Amino acid sequence: MKTLHVEFPPSDTPAPTKRIEELCHFPCGAMDLTASIPSKTAPGAHLDTLQATATKLIHPNDDWYGTNAIYYASLQDRSEVTLTFALSEASASDLELEAHNYAIHLRDLQGSLVPLYYGNFRGQCEHGRQISCTVLEYCGERLRNVFTDLSLEERHRILGKLGQLHLRKCDLKEFSEYNVLKSKEGKYRLIDFVTLDTNHKDCEFTGDWMFDKHDPSLVGCPILRDIGIQMDAWKSSGETIVTICGQEHNAAKYPPQNIIDALTEPYMKEFWNEPFLLQWFEGIRDYMNTLGIPHSSQTDEEEVVEITEDIRAFAERTRPRMPETFEEWTTMGAPTPCS
Fold first, then answer.
1. pTM of the model
2. What InterPro entries does its record include (predicted)?
3. CA pair distance 31, 11, nearest whole angstrom
4. How many domains does the structure of the chain reveal?
């Protein structure tokens, strides 16, 4: 398709925010835009003109101060799409970078992992303002719940989608609820690929999240591991966790909670000491393994593993030097064991 013809809602439809009108001269009436980054695979790609009728402004609202305006629209074949208009040259640049990612790096994932991409189009409104617009398949609304409010099954489905992306050696860099759409049928799609890393060579994810193993370290990718931990992906009725610096972790990798609490002094609980504590406690857990001492998930809930003199001596010998103040932390490097 070479051009995009857009018809906007009638004048009696509630107008967009004043901010949008000021930045992008909406509503300008019908406009014709020329393909900038076309799609060769979308339905109707053979057509000369893609005709879209916008019926509803779905983003932003009056309290929002963003850089894109998104309309719900229908095409001449009644397909449901979204029209994303950039409201500034900077956002137009981002919109076109994302369009490039859809057209090139995500081409084979359209319609399953990501929305169908119909193209990016550029032109001018009747006031001479430059317009950039991307047309995508409508796949529902952004998640309204935080990940941890979803069921474990739903979290696993979302992570399955993210894992498919990593199998292509691609990473979203900053993954959040903002990157997920959910349709009325319960299907998930990933969006927002402006910051897509297409050369994520360090990822060793094989496609198996190892949810049944209850051990995030087996995933093969530190980025996926951390996202999964934040989403409580390995949490189930049979899993035991420990808390370090206010964050929950799989008990299999660390000493029992009573030992963690006994060794953690008040200043160690500051957020900047978390990597120091994790490294330290992992070492203590490894030492306990050599002594044949079971971890928390291998013991009865009522059973308490006492901190022996051997464990305490090893802990003191390997305790890293940890900063007591934020200022001290900013001058320190990686965790360093005590000598």
1. 0.66
2. Kinase-like_dom_sf
3. 15
4. 3
